[in-house]
Design a protein that fits this description.
This protein is α/β, with parallel strands linked by helices. The protein has 3 domains: 104 residues, Nucleotidyltransferase, domain 5; 63 residues; 108 residues, no CATH class. The chain is built from 13 helices and 7 strands. The strands form 2 sheets. It has a 5-stranded mixed beta sheet, sandwiched between helices. β2 and β3 form a beta hairpin. The radius of gyration is 23 Å and the shape is globular. The termini are far apart.
Length: 314
């Protein structure tokens, strides 16, 4: 049986665990070195390389391995930790992690991750960059409102202006990327026909949820983390909560749900659903918005799968 490989990627070193053997390689976090290191698993006839998500330090390695034609899978660190505890492993070191993730790969046999194209990687980076710039702009705006010194206010205003210009540049670059891709362009036209979904939500869905429009609606909802998780034990029944999933997509849908229900004055299916849940069924505001987000992503998935635009009930 071809052994899986586990890679522990850190800032200054790479730990490789293949078929009960652990090797430690001193590397710098550059794409050139990562590409060179990607030949190891192929030479050792490895079926798949598994690592943990670790603050994006793993990204260059994953790209290098994918470009080399090697199947890769990045595991959720939380799931790996649960797996370790199920094996009675409570201590945590880099060497122990390398071994436990190798066992995780051998027992769970994860499916290789979908390989992204250079254009998809670029869009995701720009979406992330815009999100960070918007957050920085809000921070400086809040700081400027409480500034006392005129010089501080002037510097803050200059920073805000500069960041807004950068945001505009990033948005124009993303729009160009989408227009140059016929598949993205068609998806954008469908998504923007749905009430509440704007440019920011569309870019987030294209970059962070490429599976949208493929498979089942239930699977897509689970990827986003919108289905409520039931909590019961014997006679005790706890509140249902949402957790896990792709947080950035969920936040974008939450904002879209607010736009479709509370911001717009036009009647639509989401606004009617929100009012029914809050006024007739007396559901909390946030619960209603989660339900609207859940319905919105299912509708978006169905429309993309069928290749049809949203038709208003009016």
């Amino acid at each position: 049986m071809i052994p899986p490989s586990e890679l522990m990627f850190r800032k200054k070193h790479l730990m490789e665990f293949i078929d009960r053997r652990l090797s430690i390689k001193k590397l710098k976090t550059t794409k050139k070195v990562s590409t060179k290191s990607s030949t190891g698993p192929r030479e050792k006839n490895v079926s798949i390389v598994v690592c943990e998500y670790t603050g994006n330090y793993e990204q260059k390695l994953l790209v290098a391995l994918a470009d080399a034609g090697i199947d890769v899978y990045a595991a959720n660190p939380l799931f790996v930790r649960y797996f370790a505890k199920s094996k009675g492993v409570l201590h945590k070191t880099d060497k122990a992690d390398a071994k436990i993730i190798a066992q995780f790969a051998q027992e769970r046999r994860p499916k290789p991750m979908r390989q992204k194209t250079d254009r998809e990687r670029a869009l995701k980076e720009f979406v992330t960059l815009r999100r960070q710039l918007v957050r920085q702009c809000a921070q400086f705006k809040n700081q400027g409102e409480h500034a006392i010194q005129d010089e501080t206010k002037s510097i803050t205003e200059g920073l805000i202006k500069s960041i807004k210009e950068r945001i505009k540049t990033v948005e124009n670059t993303m729009e160009t990327l989408i227009k140059e891709n016929s598949d993205w362009k068609k998806k954008k036209e469908i998504l923007e026909s749905i009430p509440g979904i704007g440019p920011d939500t569309i870019r987030t869905l294209l970059a962070d949820l490429p599976e949208l429009g493929e498979g089942s609606a239930e699977k897509i909802s689970a990827l986003v983390g919108l289905p409520p998780k039931t909590q019961t034990s014997g006679k005790w029944k706890g509140k249902q909560r949402i957790q896990g999933g792709r947080i950035n997509v969920r936040v974008a849908l939450h904002n879209a749900a607010i736009a479709a229900t509370l911001v717009t004055k036009k009647d639509n299916i989401f606004k009617g659903m929100y009012e029914r849940l809050t006024k007739e069924m007396h559901k909390p505001h946030k619960v209603a918005l989660v339900a609207v987000s859940h319905k919105m992503i299912k509708i978006a998935h169905t429309l993309l799968k069928n290749g049809t635009k949203w038709k208003s009930e009016e």
